[in-house]
Sequence to fold (62 residues):
Amino acid sequence: QVKCYFVSFMERLESGVDAIKEFLSTLKSDEGWGVMVVFEEAQPQIFGQLVSEAPEWLEWMS
Fold:
């Protein structure tokens, strides 16, 4: 199921940080963390860009 969420996450990535934040808010905490782990493993460069553009992303996970 996390992989399915990851696909949706990647689609929203193109729409920007607000779209990502909104999407993550719809997931349970463990699902959101799962998506972020898969994202970091699959796209480390883009993950790094997100972290630098939105360092508050950890707050979105709670």
